Amino acid sequence: ILNYDIMARFRRRTCIILLLFILFICSIMMALKTLRPDRAGFADPFGLGLLPELQQRTALLDNKQNSLNRVQGDTVTRVSNFHGIADNAMKASMPAVNKLEEELSSPNYNFHIFYYTWFGNPQFDGKYIHWNHPLLPHWDPKIANNYPKGRHNPPEDIGANFYPELGSYSSKDPSVIEAHMKQMHSASTGVIVLSWYPPGMADENGEPTDELVSVILDYAHKYNLKVTFHIEPYKDRDDRSMYQNVKYIIDKYGGHPAFYRYKTNTGKFLPMFYIYDSYITIPEIWANLLTISGSQTIRNTPYDALFIALLVEERHKHDIHRSGFDGMYTYFATNGFSFGSSHHNWASLKAFCDSNNLMFIPSVGPGYIDTSIRPWNNHNTRNRVNGKYYETAFSAALLVRPEIISITSFNEWHEGTQIEKAVPKRTGQVVYLDYKPHKPNVYLQLTQKWSEKYRKEQEQWLM
After folding, report:
1. Per residue in 324-350, pLDDT tens?
2. CATH 3.20.20.80, applies to 116-462
3. Domain ranges of the chain
């Protein structure tokens, strides 16, 4: 009887230990899935509706908020971060912090970072802009009815899952602009890719910001940074309006010392323009502007430049080539969401670009979460895993040896892709995500670390 009792207890302990081991393995698998999401993620109905072309909508920008474009919104989130996962590995990989941030880096002009100046507050703008972003309804009314409606109410309730160290700031505030330039300089990024609409135009939740460009250029120059332009989609954007846009930008800003120019293989120094949502304009229209024989050609004129198209689907690579673009970028910080944003596709895209004399500019990001403005879009969240997601993206980018790497983003708070400093914050029932157990500047440090690694590897590629 005694032996039977001992054996029974032994079997119970064994079962408990086995169950705990299985739970541990499941937890690890979930963390790995976050880093490398399903390749089928883009085919999910939640993903398909986020891009205008894939919704089969004919209006150019009837509702930009329904695209995965730069989600301009905030919602408080109750999603918990994977604190503790890979924490020891992160600490081991962090750069030394015994120097001032300014001493850690010099600008890397092959590191481009997307930057937004659409934020406003009562002190500088008379009202909140973008921080009070509305909650966007799902396109299916049955699903939309299951989620809250309304808009955010700053400064405690903002349209983001994280909370900025600078608070609900205004992009017009000189102290904010300077702080941003310091942070980007400390991260060893070199080129600011400035979100831009033509004068008098803006996104649906913002106001015109072209007047800020000169100020951004001045502050960028102070920190040895360069500025290029991320031309946003707007109503009736076509070859003629784009010609006028480029002419306006070069005429007005091209003489500034902070205006970015890229040295081509032929020795020319040309401006560069990223064209967001380029795929919603047919190749024939782009070819009018971007090919030598085009009716509205900009080639071999004083306004010639490098034009970089957004690649979402695989077939877009052929359209980009036919259109006369000089390269492609992937923008989204959501590994697995689209063909272009999936790390495992970057090698084939780089090979296509190499064989067609195009630039391939992969976009890396620290994570993605937009449930503050799209509460139904949990499926496309990419957890930061204490920085490991970001490092995985950088590793994938370096493997294809690109001429330029772009970073999504410095401060797209609505989509949770920012590397700007964020702080823990709890207001009532709202709990914002944060960068703990690391400091608010952890993603700036990681960017600086990979900028230096990229610089060293590029030297080896050229040998």
Report:
1. 999 999 999 999 999 999 999 999 999
2. yes
3. 116-462
